[in-house]
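Hi, here's the filled form for the chain we discussed.

Project: internal
Contact: R.S.
Residues: 252
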Amino acid sequence: MKKIALSSVLLLSACFSSHAVNVDISSGLLSKFDFNNGLVDSMGNVTDVQIYSPSNGIVMTYDRFGASNSAIKFTDSSNSGSSIWGSGIDLANKSLTISFWFRSPLSSVLDDVLQVNIGLGSYRPGGYNPGGSQGNNLHIRITPLINQFSFFYDDMDISQNAAPNVWNHFSVSFDQASSSRDMYLNGFLIGSQQAAFGFTGNTFFELGGRRGVEIDDIRFYQRALTSAEVASVYATESVPEPSALSLLAVGL
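And the returned structure, exactly as it came back:
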């Protein structure tokens, strides 16, 4: 964790306390990758994470607080980009939320900044599987032009985009009972829509990005977080972890 002055610690702690929402953001959490210990799911549900890249184009990098080896950066310059993939994200026939932080230098409308895929039609790494069918794929796509949350050709496209070259928090949720889905950027709701159907696919997941894109703190929930809960995740993760702040405050 990046060391900062005690006055800054106290200020950040006060800001966090004043914006904290009395919600449990750990409830329903299936998997979390904070990348502080490599490609490890801290919840222990994903144990087979692998890198798919023509030239090993993923490196550990600095997170948004300046801590080294605490986020990942995509460095492959090929058209296919690079990705991490594995299995164990069980979201079929469930309410769900996916959230993560990312930073991108890309500005061309033709650039795919990053994609998150759950439950491809087969265990085929390295890209979107065109052999899928309705319900068996959950697809998140971010570009400088649109943000997309899709259940295989049942797309929600929102044109409010994240600023380049700074860290942004992105989240989507889906409620199985009502079929409603929401999209959030930096803690604020930017779009809602009824889905034609939900997700019924397998537990395979893939996280891929273009050269220069960084990502951190990705969470997978087996429930739909409320707007207040998404805002709380954003507020909580906008400052260094409280435990680390406590250590810094006493000079450790």
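Let me know if anything looks off before we file it.
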